[in-house]
Design a protein that fits this description.
With 161 residues, the chain is of the alpha+beta class. It is built from 4 helices and 7 strands; from the N terminus they run ααββββαβαββ. The strands form 2 sheets. It has a 5-stranded mixed sheet, with helices on one face. Helix 3 (69-91) packs across helix 4. The model has no long low-confidence stretch (mean pLDDT 94).
């Protein structure tokens, strides 16, 4: 675990911690074909989120060929912010979100093998912002391609606390 995650201050609200990182939750655009989140009981299922910011996809290509590892890590960070925005749509407050499971898809070359390093950036942000509620089960997998040629897509299951 990185020093960043290990030194998470558990003071203030999750929104305060997000703001202290210089980040804000984005507004998600509606899609006519699916919803960004669906609540069933206390579980919140978050649709796969791409690394969009202000309506613009921040990167395209295959990690290990067109996209460097550090760029992919930053794109994962943006995708997970979109996941958090969808979770807040469901529960109304970032402090009520607990991450249960995260699935990270990385469009990568067959020999890339560092999908977990890409996913670590998203995991670290969740823990920095949500503390223990950000710790989660996780799968990171390499895939041949993703929608719109995005290098990263993240899907989540959360619960309301």
């Amino acid at each position: 675990m990185s020093g960043r995650v290990a030194s998470v201050a558990q003071t203030g609200s999750a929104s305060d911690r997000l703001q202290a990182l210089g980040l804000a939750l984005p507004e998600l655009r509606e899609n006519p074909y699916y919803v960004d989140q669906r609540t069933v009981g206390s579980s919140i299922y978050i649709s796969g989120q791409l690394p969009y910011r202000d309506g613009e996809l921040l990167g395209q290509g295959i990690v290990g060929r067109d996209v460097e590892l550090e760029t992919a890590r930053e794109l994962a960070r943006h995708a997970v912010l979109n996941c958090l925005a969808a979770a807040v749509q469901a529960v109304g407050d970032l402090d009520r979100v607990r991450i249960v499971q995260m699935l990270v898809f990385v469009a990568s070359t067959p020999d890339f093998g560092l999908q977990s390093r890409v996913a670590n950036e998203a995991s670290e942000l969740l823990i920095e912002v949500l503390g223990e509620n950000g710790r989660h089960a996780r799968t990171a997998i390499g895939v041949a391609g993703l929608p719109l040629n995005s290098p990263v897509e993240i899907q989540m299951v959360c619960t309301a606390v």
